[in-house]
Amino acid sequence: MLSKEPLLQLSITPAGRAALHEFIASAAKPTAIRDEMMVKVQGMDVEDTASARAAVAERMEWARAKLARYERLRNRLLDGRSEQAYLAEAERIGPYLTLLRGISFEQENIRWAEFALAAIDRRIPSNI
Q1: Does residue 37 fall inside a structural domain?
Q2: Is residue 21 part of a domain?
Q3: pLDDT tens for residues 6-40?
Q4: Cα 76 to Cα 88: distance, rounded to the nearest angstrom
Q5: Structure pTM?
Q6: Rounded Cα–Cα distance for residues 49 and 36 (Å)
Q7: Residue numbers of the domain that contains 67
Q8: Who's near 102: CB < 8 A, 6+ residues apart?
Q9: Residue 108 domain-assigned?
Q10: Which of 39, 35, 68, 65 is nearest to 52 (CA)?
Q11: Domains contained in the chain, number
Q12: CA 92 – CA 55 distance, rounded (Å)
């Protein structure tokens, strides 16, 4: 059930605004994947494929749950408007753009996990 309460809005002090400006203007570091599960998948051919498979399946369920939360938040932000209308009319679009990145990230996690599980399942007996 979605809450009809407005989202919490915070204000930034002048010093905070200056620091934020400096941070935004600086170069962003490239994204790096540091994921313990990837180490498990990398090593699964040597030891314990079943545990690596279980980790992938669990991660996929987490991604599905997070994606569902993000989609509910997206629907709440859009509030019946089209995305195009929201982007043209909203006071702030940064949170929405960040949310879209999270949605894309979780969708990709799900796609990868489905692919990985299918590949693993083709190679190991079904009784794991």
Answers
A1: no
A2: no
A3: 667 778 889 988 888 888 888 888 888 788 888 88
A4: 17
A5: 0.77
A6: 15
A7: 58-128
A8: 66, 70
A9: yes
A10: 39
A11: 1
A12: 38
